[in-house]
């Protein structure tokens, strides 16, 4: 886990999840790396092609958000082998999101994009949680069943 | 003793130059870093001779007191030979560990000869051994730097090649172009693709452009935005744009993301896109009779 911040998730949130790997997010190439790592793990553990495509796309959205809006962050992949669940946490030290409801609204963009990324990621993941604080960074937790 | 710090080392190098090369080769074999699969004996011996010759020259002229700086001109020869040897080894697939061990293997033959020569004078022996260690270590570190530099140049070259590879605009038929997209469409690539595409539309007087995304694994909002922008630009130039190769998975994901393709035509395969495109420019594909 990244160093404690009031916008981060901790062990309580992760329950029986075991850390699988961790990545630094700096360039758009890193977003591709984490997306591929998630997709590879899901494929190896029998997830359907549709579920892989959906979750990898969601991962791509939140990882790029951290890179574009917060100048980078950290990305961790956790698994719960018994519950057959994969969880990712994307954490950044950026400015935080002022109005999460607004940010999740389709069509709203602060960076010249389509304004579908965050809301789309929420719809694509089974579990989607976001914690953010002004000046305290943003963390997104997403889970999918394997 | 009123002699320079390198006197003994130079004596050792001068009196048994050939012997040191042979033993150096021997140590390389023992350490498993002499790649007889990649280099012939004669080649290895030749490389070692050149390196040792340049090393001796550096020791003779490039060490003042006990200090030396590999960047000084006195070490030019060694750096040049090293660059050649490293380049050749990188190209033949030698690992950095093998390369460093290959250089470090020079210590043993030098130590042994110094020990034999200075058997009675341990103070001087230790001083000389320390100097040889520093010299050979610096030699090995420098080798590694060159090695990394060489690799980086290879990676850079490959990246350039891939960028060029990834944006071929192909003329399928009169006034029909296709752009097979592969891999990831980041902003830099999207820009290059777009420029290349628009220029080709002008040159070939194209009326239909098929952008095929069969080889694009993930279509997220950024990729979608780049595609839609390219399609809009194509339309502004008076051509029709068809996006093909949208798999069922990508279609469902795009719907969930809430991406609206608007009036851009889309097809599931490049095959249907091609038949549509040919119709638009006035051709049909017909089966020959009697087949």
Automatic annotation (TrEMBL), chain B:
UniProt-listed InterPro entries: Bact_StressResp_Reg, RsbRD_N_dom, STAS_dom, STAS_dom_sf
UniProtKB keywords: Phosphoprotein
Protein's UniProt keywords contain Phosphoprotein: yes
Superkingdom of the organism of origin: Bacteria
Cross-referenced Pfam families: RsbRD_N (PF14361), STAS (PF01740)
Domain STAS: start-end pairs: 166-277
UniProt name for this protein: RsbT co-antagonist protein RsbRA
Organism from which the protein derives: Sulfitobacter dubius
